[in-house]
Design goal:
- The protein is of the alpha/beta class.
- Helix content is about 40%, strand content about 15%.
- The protein contains 30 helices and 25 strands.
- The strands form five sheets. It has an eight-stranded mixed sheet. A seven-stranded mixed sheet has the order 14-11-15-16-18-17-22, sandwiched between helices.
- A hairpin with a 6-residue loop joins β12 and β13 (about 610-615).
- The longest helix is centred in the first third of the chain and has 24 residues, at about 55-80.
- The termini are far apart.
Length: about 900
């Protein structure tokens, strides 16, 4: 035991003395006496008289007790969640030793000793009882991981008086919503026996939880909410929260669809509506969602950011992101980490998302100890320095206070918040599954449960807030509503397809490309020159890196037609021209600002101050913004975000650039489940642009191929555009076409590496000033032509250089600049200039089982528009390229020679 009041006690003593100065009666009498006695008073001369303090040994013992008590209580505040009653199935949890007073040397007698009233009660036992209710009840709060003391103190101050409790009216509303959630699920089970619905039963509290969240959002000034969730409980949310007409839901069960309809399963569909709350109206959009569960998170985040940008909401207060996760998916899928990481970055932040973990305590058949190495499925959430609330789903009243505090935290700190709603899953993973095969104990406990709304109803009856008659009337009215909608769906089985083209999408087109206007995309030369002057104009005080001075001068000369335009210069002119025409430009990806190959320099960094300056944002009054963002080292998360952004910003040029096109395979889920198929599944359009460096340069297997063949395999019904342009002018017109014409489809661009500085891969200013993107670039013609090489992309320059060197004037090279939608008519016209006896050699530098060959072969077989057709390519391979530059060069030389017939 400590025998003196030493430096280790000073912080405690200072805090206690501050309380004494405010109110001497608020601290124990011994300490009040001590502070009174140690105060000094002046007496004549320079001397001081000090009154004799009480026994120092007893005070040392008292200080030791207080310090132990303070440490114990702080530990209980931060670790009480470990004993909280958060499992409605009431399975035993081990009490950690540090939550027992004896762990800190406190005896049973110590619990009845007085403590400073600042702790909220006169004795340590009384304080502990308060803490058990506040931190160890049906809500477990994790905030001990927060580093910022300001944030920790803010949370502790809000928790000092306990959670907000519901009003009688709120209790009645909670009961009604629980009842509706349960009766909806029971109705589906009755009417569509055996159908997959992914029932919400066991976590019906999600419905009042969402109500409370939306109400608080509106109270804080939010007017748009974008919501993402997987399939568990989705139909219930669509019916009871998003207010999708019940008849439409039942029609989807009846499956009355028009011929040729593809669509998606009913529990993946989205919907949007205006929601009335006590604090005003807000617009709620439930995002469509594939079965790849968490991959909707960055998409919904991107949509939220786009809505905020449309409002000019730079404070990120009018739009809110609301995500409902499954417990196993939240901790199990890496896209969650990517999304959480970018949520705090300036390029992607939305001012804090609300995360609700719909915790069934099982993932299909997998137990928590098999799907998470941590204590909770929310362990990953700790990376963003936000509190986590674990709530027993069978205490719906606790949600009122939890949501109020969580939403206040989000508004105050603009960070994500997490509510872990812990319930169970009444049925199997789906309604045809037998869960007791794998979780027998869990499902014995679940079988003993009755619907939550009935037990909660009994509570309200005891409190005099409702009667059995009023509750029965409410249930009867809702049942009648369900029956009427069901009868309407059976009586009038009108085939439906979700409408598209409303709101910000009015005037934009989907469907086939044929018949869509193909506008001129040129920009007058004098305007291009003015734009390039602006793009090369820096503030007088700006310190440009010395090595970039010549670069800027060269780019300015390109704008004045004193030297040809390279790829990056044409690209920046495309961005600039769109911006001054009022179209936002947003491109993100790794190293986007400078460019992976130090080619773009869309922004310049002051080499003395580190300040960044983007000239494209200083071109004209009233222009749209040009946003170039270096992204986190993430493909799926960032591409998902930009795709989501494009869904709510159709008038903008929105793009993602891969550092190397090869890395796009890390984002394959976003491509397969959203970009390629969203129009067919959900009638949703997007103008997202993917810039993918592609081309065999001897860089090895991971720096050669953007997997052109995979994109082509996904192409059908004009769902997206796949291009491989070969000149700066073509690229310029392609980017402008993407925005200027009303047809909105994803655009995949195989972009160059070596061509960025190839002196042959240049364009004149006048080629940008007039014309449009050409899907096919024809070759030389004449009776001397004996062979036509048909190719795409960078290999053209290798072929053309070798053709000129060998003086092979009997060979023509035709470039296929757009691979999909396939340009049948332009290509037929280009090949019609040659005799039917002239063979066509499809030439690609990729292996024969990759690239575009199989795509071409599937369309034409061994003859193309009457001409014999064969291929020259690298041999089939499981790897896209060799790892040796020397071997690569030898292969490339052989390939070019074979194509030319040398």
């Amino acid at each position: 035991m400590e025998r003196s009041i030493d430096s280790s006690n000073l912080a405690f003593l200072e805090a206690l003395y501050q309380e004494y100065e405010k109110n001497p009666a608020s601290i124990p009498a011994e300490w009040a006496s001590y502070f009174q006695n140690v105060q000094s008073e002046p007496v004549g001369g320079n001397g001081l008289v000090q009154r004799q303090p009480p026994d120092e040994a007893s005070l040392s013992e008292l200080a030791s007790f207080f310090l132990k008590a303070v440490r114990f209580l702080r530990t209980y505040r931060e670790r009480g969640h470990l004993v909280a009653r958060i499992d409605p199935l009431d399975r035993q949890r081990r009490t950690p030793p540090e939550l027992d007073p004896s762990f800190f040397g406190l005896s049973e007698a110590d619990l009845d000793r007085p403590v400073p009233m600042e702790l909220g009660a006169p004795t340590l036992r009384a304080v502990l009882e308060q803490y058990k209710a506040r931190y160890g009840g049906t809500v477990g709060i994790e905030y001990g991981h927060l580093d910022d003391p300001v944030v920790r103190n803010w949370i502790e101050a809000r928790l000092a008086d306990g959670f907000l409790r519901p009003t009688p009216e709120q209790k009645r509303k909670i009961h009604e919503r629980l009842m509706q959630a349960t009766l909806f699920e029971e109705f589906l089970q009755k009417k569509y026996l055996g159908a997959k619905t992914f029932s919400l039963e066991g976590t019906e509290s999600l419905i009042p939880l969402l109500d409370l969240t939306l109400e608080n959002a509106a109270r804080h000034g939010v007017v748009e909410v974008v919501m993402g969730m997987a399939h568990r409980g989705r139909l219930n949310v669509l019916a009871n929260v998003v207010k999708k007409p019940l008849r439409d839901i039942f029609l989807e069960f009846e499956e009355h669809f028009p011929e040729g309809y593809h669509g998606d399963v009913k529990y993946h569909l989205g919907y949007s509506s205006d929601i009335e709350t006590p604090h005003g109206k807000l617009h709620l959009s439930l995002n469509f969602n594939p079965s790849h569960l968490e991959f909707v998170a960055p998409v919904a985040m991107g949509r939220t950011r786009a809505k905020q940008d449309r409002f000019g909401d730079t404070k990120r207060e009018k739009g809110m992101l609301l995500l409902v996760h499954g417990d196993a998916a939240f901790i199990g899928e890496g896209i969650v980490q990517e999304t959480l990481n970018i949520s705090g970055l300036p390029a992607y932040t939305v001012g804090g998302a609300v995360h609700i973990i719909l915790n069934n305590q099982v993932g299909f058949t997998t137990e928590p100890h098999e799907y998470t190495a941590g204590r909770y499925s929310t362990e990953i959430a700790k990376m963003v320095e936000s509190p986590i609330f674990h709530v027993n789903a069978e205490d719906p009243e606790a949600l009122v206070g939890v949501v109020a505090l969580a939403m206040e935290f989000r508004k105050e700190f603009k960070r994500d918040v997490f509510i872990d709603l812990i319930g169970y899953r009444k049925r199997g993973h789906n309604e045809t599954d037998e869960p007791s095969f794998t979780q027998p104990d869990m499902y014995r406990r679940i079988a003993a449960k009755k619907p939550l709304y009935l037990s909660y109803q009994a509570k309200l009856e005891r409190e005099g807030l409702c009667t059995p008659e009023t509750c029965a009337t409410l249930a009867k009215l809702y049942q009648e509503t369900l029956e009427a909608a069901f009868s309407g769906a059976r009586r009038e089985p009108t085939p439906t397809r979700p409408p598209a083209g409303g709101g910000v999408w009015k005037g934009y087109l989907g469907g086939p490309e044929e018949g869509v206007p193909d506008p001129e995309t040129g920009v007058p030369s004098e305007k291009l020159t003015a734009l390039m002057d602006g793009l090369t104009r820096l503030p007088e005080s700006f310190h440009l890196h010395p090595k970039l001075v010549r670069f800027v001068e060269a780019r300015r000369e390109m704008g004045h037609n004193k030297r040809p335009l390279d790829w990056a210069a044409a690209e920046m002119l495309a961005f600039a021209s769109l911006a001054v025409e009022g179209h936002r430009v947003r491109i993100s990806g790794q190293d986007v600002v400078r460019g992976t190959f130090t080619q773009r320099h869309g922004g310049y960094t002051d080499h003395l101050t580190g300040e960044r300056y983007i000239p494209a944002n200083h071109l004209a009054e009233g222009q749209a913004v040009v946003e170039l963002y270096n992204s986190a080292l993430s493909e799926a998360g960032v591409l998902g975000f930009e795709y989501g952004y494009s869904l709510d910003m159709p008038e903008a040029l929105v793009g993602w650039e891969a550092q190397y096109g090869d890395f796009v395979n890390t984002a394959q889920v976003i491509i397969d489940q959203f970009i390629a198929s969203a129009e067919a599944k959900w009638s949703r359009l997007s103008g997202i642009v993917l810039l993918l460096p592609h081309g065999m340069e001897g860089g090895g297997p991971e720096h050669s191929s953007a997997r052109l063949e995979r994109f082509l395999q996904l192409c059908s019904n004009d769902n997206m555009q796949v291009t491989y342009p070969t000149t700066p002018a073509q690229y310029f017109h392609l980017l402008r076409r993407q925005v200027v014409r009303p047809w909105r489809k994803p655009l995949i661009v195989m972009t160059p590496k070596s061509l960025l500085r190839n002196p042959d891969a240049v364009s004149r200013l006048d080629e940008l000033a007039q014309g449009r993107f050409q899907r096919v670039l024809a070759g030389s013609t004449g009776p001397a032509i004996k062979r036509v090489i048909l190719c795409s992309g960078k290999v053209y320059y290798d072929l053309e250089a070798a053709r000129r060197a060998a003086q092979k004037d009997d060979v023509a090279i035709v470039r296929l600049e757009q691979l999909y939608p396939f340009p049948m008519q332009p290509l037929e016209a280009a090949l019609a200039q040659y005799s039917d006896k002239v063979e066509v050699v499809w030439t690609q530098e990729e292996p024969a089982n990759m690239g575009a060959w199989w795509f071409i072969r599937a369309r034409f077989g061994d003859r193309i528009f009457g001409h014999p057709l064969r291929v020259v390519a690298r041999p089939e391979s499981s790897s896209p390229a060799v790892g040796s530059k020397k071997v690569h060069d030898k292969e490339q030389q052989a390939l070019v020679s074979a194509a030319l017939g040398l």
